[in-house]
Write a structure and sequence with these properties.
With 250 residues, the chain is mainly α. It has two domains: 143 residues, no CATH class; 84 residues, Arc Repressor Mutant, subunit A (Orthogonal Bundle), CATH 1.10.10. The chain is 59% helix and 6% strand. The protein is built from 13 helices and four strands. It has a two-stranded antiparallel sheet. A two-stranded antiparallel sheet has the order 2-3. The relative contact order is 0.11.
Length: 250
């Protein structure tokens, strides 16, 4: 298969109006008019040509800073990848096209740079040959879009720190300071994150070899732990250049 054939397929799919909502159309106009941005996209190893065809096909406008940030992170990651690691067949698929469009769309809807980083990493890791089985990048994209930037920071902190019953109170103080919230809003954020399936309420555990059941009194603080879907998501996002866990939202 010639290198131009995947681009033609991507272009034909991206030109379908039903596949592009209002945010994507606006973003594409800016892209088509911005020569520097387009040059940067084409320079991205392996997937730059496909991205160029997708973004240029609609010729609409979007917010320059958000588009640049997404593509900058994508470029940084793909420049560290060996060609053999990329699944070329996946790049020819409609699944990849849809994921590109969703990453572009969702990125234009948030001013939070860290959230854009989540979208970019889901997109780049979806192209890896060793991550084609057992993962659901499109579902991950929707999951991240449903959580606020603050909720994502709380979730990341919980994943990193893994607080237990005896450290939960100190963790709540720490994370409230980190994200700029109070304990009432923290509980709201944790409840929302729990609804996403990333964390689960701690109802049992082992203390000095004995199994215990945690019974909550009225107004008592809930305890949460990282759920297996969160573990799976973070494993999917792992890479030598991963920045998700640094908290770098710049």
């Amino acid at each position: 298969m010639s290198s131009s054939e995947p681009n033609k397929k991507i272009s034909s799919i991206a030109n379908l109006p039903a596949k592009v909502d209002e945010a994507t159309k606006k973003a594409s106009e800016l892209y088509g008019e911005n020569t520097a941005l387009r040059v940067m996209v084409v320079a991205i190893p392996y997937i730059g040509g496909g991205l160029d065809m997708v973004f240029a096909s609609e010729g609409q406008r979007a917010q320059k800073e958000r588009v640049f940030k997404l593509l900058e992170i994508v470029r940084e990651r793909m420049e560290t990848v060996e060609e053999e690691a990329v699944d070329k067949k996946y790049l020819e698929s409609e699944e990849f096209v849809d994921l590109v469009l969703k990453a572009f769309e969702f990125s234009t809807k948030t001013r939070d740079k860290e959230k854009i980083r989540w979208y970019a990493q889901i997109l780049t890791e979806s192209t890896m040959r060793n991550k084609q089985e057992g993962y659901s990048p499109e579902e991950y994209m929707y999951l991240i879009s449903d959580l606020s930037p603050q909720e994502l920071r709380v979730a990341r902190s919980l994943y990193r720190e893994r607080p237990k019953d005896n450290t939960w109170e100190s963790w709540t103080e720490q994370v409230c300071n980190e994200v700029g919230t109070d304990k009432a809003d923290l509980q709201l954020a944790l409840s929302r994150i729990r609804s996403s399936g990333l964390i689960e309420e701690e109802i049992a555990g082992v203390d000095e070899g004995r199994l215990y059941i945690h019974t909550r009194e009225p107004n008592e603080v809930l305890y949460y732990r990282v759920a297996s879907p969160f573990e799976k998501l973070m494993k999917f996002l792992e890479s030598d250049s991963s920045a998700i866990e640094t908290g770098d939202g710049t």
